[in-house]
Amino acid sequence: MAKKKTEKAAATKYKPLTPAIIAEMEKIVGRQYVIHSDAEKLEPFSHDEISEKEYAHMPDCVVRPAAAQEIAEIMKLANREMIAVTPRGAGSGLSGGAVPVFGGIVLLCDRMNKVIEFDKANMTITVEPGLVTNEINEIVRPAGLFYAGYPMSLETCYVGGNVAENAGGGKAVKYGVTARYVLGLEVVTPKGDIVQLGGKLVKDVTGYDLIHLMVGSEGTLGIFTKIILKLMPLPKASVDLLVLFRTPDEAIAAVPEIMTKSGIIPTAIEFMDRLSAHAACKYLNETLDYKDAGAMLLITVDGPDEQQVMQQYEAIGEQCLAAKAIEVYVADNHTTSERVWKVRRNIAEAFKVQSPRQSLEDIVVPIASIPKMVAGLEELSRKHDCQIPCYGHAGDGNLHATPVMNPKWSDQQWHDRLEQILVDMYKLTASLGGTISGEHGIGHKRKKYMPLVCQAAFIDMMRAIKLALDPNCVLNPGKIFDC
Amino acid sequence: MAKKKTEKAAATKYKPLTPAIIAEMEKIVGRQYVIHSDAEKLEPFSHDEISEKEYAHMPDCVVRPAAAQEIAEIMKLANREMIAVTPRGAGSGLSGGAVPVFGGIVLLCDRMNKVIEFDKANMTITVEPGLVTNEINEIVRPAGLFYAGYPMSLETCYVGGNVAENAGGGKAVKYGVTARYVLGLEVVTPKGDIVQLGGKLVKDVTGYDLIHLMVGSEGTLGIFTKIILKLMPLPKASVDLLVLFRTPDEAIAAVPEIMTKSGIIPTAIEFMDRLSAHAACKYLNETLDYKDAGAMLLITVDGPDEQQVMQQYEAIGEQCLAAKAIEVYVADNHTTSERVWKVRRNIAEAFKVQSPRQSLEDIVVPIASIPKMVAGLEELSRKHDCQIPCYGHAGDGNLHATPVMNPKWSDQQWHDRLEQILVDMYKLTASLGGTISGEHGIGHKRKKYMPLVCQAAFIDMMRAIKLALDPNCVLNPGKIFDC
Q1: Residue B461 and residue A189: Cβ atoms within 8 Å?
Q2: ∠ Cα A150 A283 A410 (to 5°)
Q3: Which of A359, B53, B342, B474 is such that its CA lies 20 to 30 A from the CA of A295?
Q4: Measured between alpha carbons, how far is A280 from A389 in angstroms, rounded to an integer?
């Protein structure tokens, strides 16, 4: 009840867009780059990749600036007129970060998609926020370099969104997440200042680390207009292992053993529980002998040459067998590699055959707690009469547990049950020392669950920082917490 | 002039410690853990490792709490009574972070030195801030793990200080700096709340990344009472290469080539200019043939076994020779390894023979700009008639350029000249896209130089965040910026 009141109060705080304000925006970015008064054209900007309609909200207008200076002017205008501004990249998010929950302006970064500089000698690339992430690797690969940020959506998502959400992905065990590669930012602040943070510097303790306060702040603290990314040497060889275990316990117990006994940090350690693995294998008519597998690990290693990668995967394979794996399949060429990754990638599709409605979750727990989490999810599944396949990034403890609607339920039943399932799931996660998002973010989808996993004092600190930088709360309001 | 006024205003803001307040503190931590009214006992807490007396300031009292709850009570008391509180670890800092510039309370963390939990399965260790950094590795090594934070002072410094300063060190090229390993913090806020941030989670995007706002904030935003650190698999083999080049340009040009062409990220790439290398070799009576060397690189590689390390150093050695190195010395055992690292470690000592007064600087530039920096430093050296050896972490662009007092100068001359040298050096650094501290921090030593390398808007953002979390500015005031 109290929350509803807050939201209503915040909503009335923001003013409607008048024709005069729209004219002013047209003057800033050019008339053809302002979309308004056309529901059909505005609709695509009312949601991200979450399909549930309850999370959508129409913007009053979409502006497509081409430069930091234009964004600065828009932010000054928004402050003067008390209008909410929601920055947006490719709209590939999974927590509603780019949804304009109070209407107002969607600030679309698609025109700011240039590579500003590829600096081979410093192993950096400077880009605008609207660049598609995967394009970076196309550009830097010939120079023997690669960008190690690797969200699963890298063929469509924008770098700016990756930075705003601190995107994770499939290579985080060895390479870490987006944050590790952000060396510098040009940021338009909520008040409309243009601030340079960091630079082509791999070490920098000159003042507070505002770069990493910005990374993952979900577009609530600033709009990135230049991003300086660190590049890494391109691995010259890579091999995948698909490892079958009898139980999730045995699979997960192997994870730290692999790293501590072999001394190797794999690129990826993906986990699939019995339900996920069997559903995907069945869906793909996979012929490998998976019947006894109660869980699978998909392990990738990469390195500077084939010989070193061979040594690594042999050492890891031995550790897996010592840790009671029942089978280790080696995929050392493109065809076999695709085959094993297909199992991992087709889990969501496999469950769509059973039911079109799923809620892709993003919990993260200490890696040693994964077996308890998996057991707890099986219990929840029985309690709520709903399948909850569990798969994800085991090396990080980041699990995409995904409640799938029981086909017998009505939409309303699904809506009500899901609420209960999520509360139970998040409480269980918290009891295991975990939290509700490892890489997708909070947005407005998970905002109400924050008190389940963090202290009021933590939320108060975030709110104090938000209001210090954005006193009118005009930049992406209604996300993470209410302010 | 304006600055002096601000400092005076701030100084008068804080109130003196009364006997009643001291009695209250004695009640909180126990009488034997409060030091006051004894200049001799207080003096060691008036400075850190900076030897210049102008940076020292006496505390009015030193308190030695044993628990977060005690620290919380002290912070509440300090807010109520308007008393400055300066947290302190081992006092091994190099920027004055632990110096109580407005007197008041030094909050010493030496009694909070316990290992709370070593969690092998999650590859984490949870410690109190007063633990000596090196002790972590003693504890975790038998389990095949190591802590990759590696400040040069690790045998004396405390973990809490490392986190507060975001300490760098000799292994940052491959392993990054302290920040990468901090997964969780328990923080006492300036207002006296106890807040839990993060956990044993290697990925977490649940709200703002306040952990990394705290890391490197130099004790101005919170006092850490529990630190959860990520551990890594212990490398089982390591080799050092000492590589001689004709010029700094050739040495530095080799750095990105090594990484991009061999595909290997070395553990360390240390740089020594002619002046540093020759002085240290001469000081050590080193017999290797260094006469033609205009610069040296000291490169370390480590890995999971000897064979892989051998492959790595051979590939790197070849790249160095292809990049015009005149000689590559391999140190593959403890004795030879010690011999080459001795050259790097004895540079400061070698110059102490010439003059006892030096100013250890900590500039950082994009790696490709190191040759220009080195050339610029040679020019500054001629202009100011003062030797400025330059050495440090080339793989990070972090250079400990160190003006050494001309023995002909008086102390006053040194003082005045150094001021000019530093302004010139920092301006040059800024013009090359660099900044004034890579790992030592700003503290009060470098505060006045901040406007040379960052925008007023950046300082304003830091100040806004500081005041949002510490409205009375009682926690470590006078550091980084004035508030």
Answers
A1: yes
A2: 90
A3: A359
A4: 11
Cβ distance of A209 and B204 shorter than 8 Å: no
Domains and CATH numbers, chain B: 2-111 (3.30.43.10), 115-233 (3.30.465.10), 236-441 (3.40.462.10)
Token pair, residue A319, equals 């550790």
pLDDT category at A3 given cuts 50, 70, 90 is very low
Question: Which residues sit opposite A241 in a β-bridge?
Answer: A299, A330
- A206/B contact by beta carbon, under 8 A: yes
Distance CA B219, CA B108 (A): 12
Q: Check if the beta carbon of residue B304 is closer than 8 Å to that of residue A259.
A: no
Residue B201 pLDDT > 70: yes
Please judge whether B438 and A205 are an interchain contact, meaning their C-beta atoms are less than 8 angstroms apart: yes
Q: Which of residues 376-415 of B touch A (CB under 8 A)?
A: 393, 395-398
Give the pLDDT confidence of A435-459 residue by residue, as tens digits.
999 999 999 999 999 999 999 999 9
* CB-CB under 8 Å, A236 with B216: no
The predicted pLDDT at position A363 comes to 97
Supply the DSSP string of B217-254, one letter for each residue. Answer: STTSS-EEEEEEEE-EEPPSEEEEEEEEESSHHHHHHH
Contact criterion met (CB below 8 Å) for B440 and B180: no
**B482: its two tokens:** 């004035």
Q: Would you call B415 helix, strand, or coil by DSSP?
A: helix
Tell me which chain A residues have a C-beta less than 8 angstroms from the C-beta of B435: 199, 201, 204, 206
Burial of B7 from C-beta contacts in 10 A (0-12 / 13-18 / 19+): middle
Helix axes A347-354, A334-345, angle to 10 degrees: 40
ipTM for the assembly: 0.95
Residue A228: strand pairing partners? A126, A184
What is the residue type of B113? N
| A312: amino acid identity, one letter | Q
- Average pLDDT across chain A, whole number: 94
Give CA–CA dist B173/B186, Å, rounded.
Answer: 28
Does B193 sit within 8 Å of A259, measured CB to CB?
no
Helix (H) or strand (E) holding A391: strand A391-393
The pLDDT value given to residue A1: 37
The count of other CB atoms within 10 Å of the CB of residue B32 is 8
Give the Cα separation of A209 and A200 in Å (integer): 15
A322 in B contact zone (CB under 8 Å): no
Lowest mean pLDDT among A470-479, B192-201, B386-395: B386-395
> What are the backbone angles phi and psi of residue A297, rounded to the nearest 5°?
-115, 140
| Residue B277 pLDDT | 94
Q: Is the pLDDT at A6 greater than 60, yes or no?
A: no
Q: B210-229 pLDDT, tens per residue?
A: 999 999 999 999 999 999 99
Compute the radius of gyration of chain B from its Cα atoms. 23
Locate the DSSP E strands across B84-173: 85-88, 105-108, 115-119, 124-127, 145-146
Per-residue confidence (pLDDT) for residue B1, from 0 to 100: 37
- Provide long-range contacts, Cβ within 8 A and 24+ apart, for A381-385: A383/A424, A384/A417, A384/A420, A384/A421, A384/A424
